[in-house]
């Protein structure tokens, strides 16, 4: 039974997944266990994406299915999920850039892989990154950007982190749109990730979790 | 022309459109007066260079260079994007400076994202633009949302224009919110006819139309300034690249109607509706693209490609959802003598063997991060290719690096013609010396 | 309503629309104030009578009488058709006189004689109307032509509204010539595409066309104000309005004012598939047309004048292939949204009766002209409400006693068990008032059901 939900999610079978969840809720199963299975399914989705077996629509759709599942399960939850998070990551689209699709996918994949992501949104002022790093003590920062203007915004953000004395306390990854290895060098980031699973791998390497 | 347009073959139509590009007219419809015999010669050489590269019949004299610019010329002239969007003279003077100083083979005019005041009048909600949601020195950005809802496919499919005017426009233009009249297809026999006109008497609807006319006035003013600039550049020897634009039907749905997230979920939840809507949209895209090209006497129709890139869709999804109607669009344009210019964002490595299926010498493909050796290998015998000059290099590299990359590209793809030098994505922030290096290097190494 | 509209069954939707018709609202959306308790009672009795005749569930108190009108009220009140088309006061006066003098079960409203000034402003070419191509004392007449060409099916099918505005309107409205230059809005896409695609709205011919459209709108609004006020006044006096909406059968849509009679007949042979495809494309559009009007009016009846499907116009095989399938789809689309289609059948339908039986019970109301009513009752009795057939020639040149005899015979033939309404066969123009009165009064007298 439990295996079914994991597979249904991993195989993107929405109707089947919903039916299983409803059946298990009717059988008074612990909602947290159901959510746990759903997350296991999502991990498989992530793996398949990393293996180029799945593509962006699959990631987006799996997110939609998970949303439906969570909405079914939530009313039955008596306590908050206390799943241990692996570590904190401050994430946002840099100043001047308001693109959120790519950023949202990465945040989502980091989240389902067990990281606690502090999502600062889009067009994030430089100082806000610095403040959040201080406030949360997050060891990893993710900067997203779609446009070429993000090159300078990222550079400036990283320089400000540096002048706030935080540069050696955090690892910084960048990605999105026109970002490349070349831009990693230009901005002084620690790494460039080409997609959502690359971000997960980087975070796992820096924080652990695999 | 002796034969009527309808009687010409696609080949003949393409020749007619190239002929018209080669012999430009002024705004009164007379033969354009060039500034000098040299300017005329340069103009014709430039157009011929493109024509030869595209048609794959004769080797061009050298590799043509076509920089795709966003706000690059604005920055070059020291203006902000906001300034050129609101002051058409500044836009023209910046574009003039760029063309005359850097001398690209063709230019894209001074249009940018369009006239700022026009968008103000309509209260445009779909984008933030310089000084209006983004900083005055930054480019425009799309505010993605589901401007078409998941349950509105039938409305779009049944009657696209009714969907656009009564459902879509009120959402994307604040000033047109009152556009919710009953369908004009209700105007049938005399019985009850006047009821259909009642909404047009309501003050909010009248105000909306007034705004639309005012916006039209502004768009016309702007279009005349842009037309005058293109004419001025042509007289100086620099042809304009394209005025016709079209979009892959899948991008039409995915970019500004359903949005990225919406279309990706629809692929799973209602694939048949997506396919039907794509079929419905295709002829509309063909008509407008071909109409603009024929009106202007310029065969190239610019088609920016977005959501079909590697990773965005699986191979199967690309073949099922993206390619069939993109190909139909291209074939429709080719039938009308146009040259579809697909500007491919992202990478297309896995798509090359699919897109090979186009008639020889009728299309132009510019790539971003696609492997160019592979592209040449797969497309070399059927289509002209270009692109891949990386934006990051142009933004943060050195002129030497740019020259090296240009040389490498020409060595890889230039052989036998069918190649043009293009940057991978539109240029905003880029070092002028790097753009110059790209153009100059092509002129230097690209001679056949 | 507790359930949402989408969750209701067609039957529940119909009931809901009848309830709205039974409890009319004033223009502010409040419950309408009737002139007197008697007026309120009479209003509800009239609606209920029609409802019972249509639904076939309960026997009505008597046979309803539902006269079909064209310019009759103008002639009766001593005005020319031209006068009431241009003077909304005279228009209301004439109709009020008709309703109060004759007391029919429904008030025809004043929306039918369309305002002349709207046509003048638009330079309407499709019809001649009183004082404009025909005598001020005549009714309007269609100027048949191919307003849609034989090779334009694809454009119509692809994008009906675009075809109508940019191709059809410039042909039927002289002042909308500039619409030829309108862009297809489907190309209003990413930002750089928007400005260039909307340039046509700055062109003088387009702006002039819109000015004409907005002027016509202002005039139509004035007229609509008079129409609304009249409807309220009559309802307050106890007379419910007639149809809430109007639509057409896709085959007639194509054959009447697009391709024309000659055009569609030839197309049946030369390009039958295009006709079928075009009708498929028009069907949802025609459904929406009826549904949205009844929703606004709060009255379930949708008038559908039927033209080119009559006996003799098409063979049986052609009727079954070209006319009936989309007609049925239209009926079902309307019924599913709670509407009651009111097909107004011109000519005769004797050979069609067996085909049109195939509809859900108690949800349509057919008015016939020259159809054999005994046959109609036999075929449709227990399935649909029928009416009509009081002949125009009789009403024009006959005597009141002849009319009474005719109506008696009709009630005897068709009235049994309900599901019947007395009506004339063709919309009335210059008929004898005493004959109209005879038709109405005799129905009230003879048509009472004994329970």
Could you walk me through the main structural features you see in this protein, from its secondary elements to its overall organization?
The complex is a heterotrimer of chains A (210), B (448) and C (451). Chain A is an alpha/beta fold. Helix content of chain A is 56%, strand content 10%. Chain A contains 9 helices and 5 strands; from the N terminus they run ααααβαβαβαβαβα. Chain A has a 5-stranded parallel beta sheet with strand order 2-1-3-4-5, sandwiched between helices. The longest helix of chain A has 20 residues. The relative contact order of chain A is 0.13. Chain B is α/β, with parallel strands linked by helices and 448 residues long. Chain B folds into 2 domains: 267 residues, TIM Barrel (Alpha-Beta Barrel); 122 residues, no CATH class. A 6-stranded parallel beta sheet of chain B has the order 4-5-6-7-8-9. Chain B has a 3-stranded mixed beta sheet with strand order 2-1-3. In chain B, strand 6, helix 14 and strand 7 form a beta-alpha-beta unit. In chain B, helix 11 packs across helix 12 and helix 17 runs parallel beside helix 18. The model of chain B has no long low-confidence stretch (mean pLDDT 94). In chain C, strand 7, helix 16 and strand 8 form a beta-alpha-beta unit. In chain C, the strands form 2 sheets. Chain C has a 6-stranded parallel beta sheet. A 3-stranded mixed beta sheet of chain C has the order 2-1-3. The two termini of chain C are 33 Å apart. Chain C is globular and about 75 Å long. Chain C has 19 helices and 9 strands. The longest helix of chain C has 33 residues. The interface between B and C is large, with 74 and 67 residues.
State the gist of this model:
The complex is a heterotrimer of chains A (210), B (448) and C (451). Chain A has 9 helices and 5 strands; from the N terminus they run H-H-H-H-E-H-E-H-E-H-E-H-E-H.
